[in-house]
Design goal:
Length: 225
């Protein structure tokens, strides 16, 4: 029997990259170019950049004397221009189409322009409530973005479910008081003890008579070795 977890939140909050949109090839191309420009270890950067704002990663790794603002602007421009290989995470389109308007939001470490570009490239709708890197003073793992999204939807953060795939985002979701669900294979400290799905094909949702969302996580068994 397929293991199931049922949740009854008021709203769903989604990370974008790795949760709704698979942008791995673009992200890797962008950060590898950055690493080559500055003689840095691309693998080290890629291991920590996911789920964090671009400027924060630049500030962490750029050599002394680098114009961090100019470098960040360059990286963002490269990402906005490059959508080759961007696809939706399996199940994302079907899940979002099943959600009532005003019952979900996107909270992302990408800027607003980049978010619109990637969601469009993946064929996904942008919700009424979008909290991007441009809208917060502190990025993930700060809970600021998730708290702002809940406030914009008019719901208690504790009555939301957050779908996330990265350590920084899961830490942010936990700190906001939401119920986090891990999407994909991330197994870092913040993922321990949480419900998880391989992708969004394993999530179904319906609106209950009381106005809540009935969210079921169908965790398919692992394939035989």
């Amino acid at each position: 029997m397929t293991p199931r977890t049922t949740l009854t939140p008021t709203a769903l909050l989604f990370d974008m990259d790795g949760t709704l949109v698979d942008s791995t090839v673009v992200v890797e191309r962008t950060w590898r170019r950055f690493a080559r420009r500055h003689g840095l270890d691309a693998e080290e950067i890629l291991a920590t950049a996911h789920g964090r704002r671009t400027g924060e990663t630049v500030a962490r790794y750029a050599p002394p004397g680098t114009d961090a603002a100019a470098e960040t602007a360059r990286l963002v421009a490269e990402e906005v221009a490059d959508v080759d290989g961007i696809v939706p995470v399996p199940g994302a389109a079907g899940l979002l189409s099943a959600l009532p308007a005003g019952s979900w939001a996107v909270v992302t470490s990408a800027g607003r322009e980049l978010t619109h570009r990637r969601m469009a490239a993946a064929g996904l709708p942008v919700p009424e409530v979008l909290v991007s890197a441009d809208d917060v003073t502190e990025g993930k793992p700060s809970p600021e973005g998730y708290l702002a999204a809940a406030a914009a939807l008019g719901v208690d953060p504790a009555r939301t479910v957050v779908f996330e795939d990265a350590e920084a985002g899961l830490r942010a979701a936990r700190a906001s008081g939401a119920t986090p669900v891990v999407v994909g294979g991330h197994d870092g400290p913040a993922a321990q003890g949480l419900a998880r799905v391989r992708d969004l094909c394993e999530v179904t949702v319906r609106r209950t008579a009381s106005g809540l969302l009935d969210v079921t996580l169908h965790r398919a068994p692992a394939p035989a070795a």
